[in-house]
Design goal:
The protein has 301 residues and is mainly alpha-helical. 82% of the residues lie in helices and 0% in strands. It has one domain.
């Protein structure tokens, strides 16, 4: 199918834009830290059921040990460490600044893919990535009145938040490339996503047992509305979103896929208008148009 990877990347961004709304609403009720942990088991169940219904088994036979290693590392680096840093950065420095810093993720993905996989980008692809990221940066650099008024506990907290955002961007980019390496032996994206998610789930819940907050996490399930919102986010994010993100990197260059998937701040604009009744500035519309132009270049390139 032509543009399979690019279309999958665009679908990923679409799913993740809904995820951001669901997880934000759930996080306001029980905290983003707890949402991050609760969403993984939901995704594992959804992925497992999908595999059983479509293939009759959880995993196909013949998966190499190297694929398990790459995908396992991808799950820990990208989903456990990367998402934990990202969620914490949202709380520390706010959504817009975090997403602005996060625009470096496609560049890190392209460099990692070049080092690890020998993957190179065409001139058109590099121009498309630059234009897309420029549009995203233009939109996310515009701060709301609430964020302008936001005061940090101290300068160190802002510095820590910036490093958390950079860490999240780096981990997610590296995790994406590791996942692509894990699918090199013709492994399909769906079982690859399941392996990533199970590994991430084991890592994040093992940490809960070690730190002794397992009981507190379980107590969050008493808030039914928050759990339903977290489930909605899990459907759009770690289930459909992560699945399609692996389809994207399997069928196109990691840097191209990461750039298109980074357009979540653009695609979320109509949602925040509907959900939060926010007004959209001319600047945001202009930035969105630039990002769309970059995506067109990536498709045509």
């Amino acid at each position: 199918m032509p543009y399979n990877g690019e279309i999958s990347a665009l679908a990923t961004a679409f799913f993740w834009s809904f995820t951001s709304i669901f997880f934000t609403l759930s996080g306001r009720r029980i905290g983003s830290y707890w949402v991050n942990k609760i969403r993984i088991p939901f995704a594992i169940v959804l992925l497992g059921l999908t595999l059983l219904l479509t293939t009759g088994q959880l995993l196909p036979g013949g998966i190499s040990s190297s694929a398990y290693i790459y995908l396992g590392l991808s799950g820990i680096v990208g989903l456990t460490l990367g998402d934990s840093c990202l969620f914490r950065a949202f709380v520390t420095i706010g959504t817009r600044l975090t997403l602005l810093i996060f625009t470096v993720s496609p560049i890190i993905a392209a460099l990692t893919a070049w080092i690890l996989l020998g993957e190179t980008l065409s001139a058109a692809a590099m121009i498309g990535i630059a234009v897309t990221l420029g549009g995203i940066a233009w939109v996310t650099a515009e701060r709301s009145h609430d964020e302008k008024a936001n005061s940090y506990a101290d300068r160190g907290s802002k510095t820590a938040g910036i490093f958390l955002a950079l860490g999240g961007a780096s981990c997610q980019a590296i995790g994406l490339v590791l996942a692509k390496a894990g699918m090199a032996d013709s492994l399909a994206p769906l079982p690859a996503t399941f392996i990533r998610m199970v590994t991430a789930g084991i890592a994040i819940w093992a940490f809960s047992f070690i730190t002794g907050d397992f009981r507190k996490t379980a107590g969050k399930f008493k808030d039914i509305r928050a759990i339903l919102l977290a489930f909605g986010g899990a459907v759009c994010g770690p289930f459909l979103g992560v699945w399609f993100s692996l389809r994207a990197v399997k069928y196109t260059e990691a840097g191209v896929a990461a750039a298109i998937m980074a357009t979540v701040p653009i695609l979320v604009i109509p949602l925040v208008i509907f959900v939060y009744r926010e007004k959209v500035s001319i600047r945001a519309i202009f930035g969105a148009a630039i990002a769309v132009g970059g995506i067109v270049i990536l498709f045509l390139g």
